[in-house]
Write a structure and sequence with these properties.
Layout (H helix, E strand, L loop, with lengths): L2 E5 L2 E4 L4 E8 L7 E7 L6 E7 L5 E3 L7 E6 L4 E6 L8 E8 L14 E2 L3 E6 L1
Parallel strand pairs: 2-11
Antiparallel strand pairs: 1-3, 3-8, 4-5, 4-9, 5-6, 7-8, 9-10, 9-11
């Protein structure tokens, strides 16, 4: 089973950039979808972006297009989420998730059976 360790969050100012990292380990990542979700205070958990480990196809929530970029380094078994031009509205706990899920369910939190502990991103104005 895949295990995930996140890093890269912190306290930043509006306009700054962050690069979140998710180090994955396991016997194999074949067929896995890796994704990022976030949960802001008082709000539901929200899909941000996903990537197919093997093929590299990427998917973005409409709200994430433009300022968010997901990528992976297969040699390092790591998934990244680059966030540019951070806004206070981006403040949330960001979770790295993984699972073998049908492509049409990638935006659903319940589709993933492996979750990281989350990394806090706080954007001050």
């Amino acid at each position: 089973q895949v295990q995930l360790v996140e890093s890269g969050g912190g306290l930043v100012q509006a306009g700054d950039s962050l690069r979140l990292s998710c180090a994955a380990s396991g016997p194999t990542f074949s067929g896995y979808t890796m994704a990022w979700f976030r949960q802001a205070p008082g709000k539901e958990r929200e899909f941000v972006s996903a990537i197919n480990w093997s093929g590299g196809s990427t998917y973005y929530a409409d709200s994430a297009k433009g300022r968010f970029t997901i990528s992976r380094d297969k040699a390092r078994n790591t998934v990244f989420l680059q966030i540019d031009s951070l806004k206070p509205e981006d403040t949330a706990v960001y979770y790295c998730v993984a699972g073998r899920v049908p492509g049409w369910t990638i935006r659903r939190p319940s589709s993933y059976d492996c979750w990281g502990q989350g990394t806090q991103v706080t954007v001050s104005s």
